[in-house]
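Design a sequence for this backbone.
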């Protein structure tokens, strides 16, 4: 059974190359035991297909009863694949080879979950650095949410002016800066200057250790 069995003159059909058109003639191709379909397209072009929607010069079907909708793919998303060392900050900020956790009953699916969460690395030293950075960020975020009522859970919206702290290596102390229309991925935003100054004072007076 051919794709276009039963096609008639006047039928509206569609091709990848020329869009919609109408069948204007049919005749038999004895060599292939198929019918030839002659189509005049709305763009004025005329072409011939066999009853499977193929042109003689093309092995692939390009003629169909109706339009085929194709979703154009974008660039593929990046998958996090590093999985050897598990950065475990839920049990005292420790670093485990994945095989240790695997013996505790974590399966392959959970290993993939940890990787997608950004909590695994293939290199032990890189994993240690990541553990240190994540720990500092999490502790500073917790300090802000605990000590600064106005900034608790705060994340700036568009056009918000907000404040953040940074380490000044010349003066060897934490200082305050402000930003607007910029969201930095590696800083913790504070809603008011007073909150930022409070956090700076706490850190500069060694009342809280980010490395603990």
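Sequence:
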């Amino acid at each position: 059974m051919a794709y276009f069995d039963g096609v008639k003159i006047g039928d509206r059909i569609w091709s990848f190359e020329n869009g919609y058109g109408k069948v204007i003639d049919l005749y038999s191709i004895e060599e292939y035991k198929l019918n030839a379909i002659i189509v005049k397209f709305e763009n004025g072009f005329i072409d011939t297909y066999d009853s499977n929607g193929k042109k003689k010069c093309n092995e692939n079907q390009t003629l169909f009863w109706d339009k085929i909708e194709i979703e154009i793919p974008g660039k593929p998303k990046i998958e996090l694949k590093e999985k050897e060392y598990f950065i475990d900050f839920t049990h005292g900020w420790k670093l485990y080879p994945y095989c240790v956790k695997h013996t505790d009953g974590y399966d392959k699916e959970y290993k993939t979950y940890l990787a997608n969460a950004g909590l695994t690395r293939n290199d032990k030293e890189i994993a240690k650095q990541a553990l240190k950075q994540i720990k500092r960020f999490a502790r500073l975020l917790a300090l802000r949410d605990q000590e600064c009522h106005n900034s608790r859970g705060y994340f700036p919206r568009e056009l918000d002016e907000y404040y953040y702290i940074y380490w000044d290596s010349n003066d060897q102390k934490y200082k305050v800066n402000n930003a607007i229309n910029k969201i930095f991925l590696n800083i913790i935003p504070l809603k008011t200057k007073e909150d930022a100054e409070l956090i700076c004072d706490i850190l500069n007076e060694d009342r809280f250790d980010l490395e603990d």
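The longest helix spans residues 124-147.
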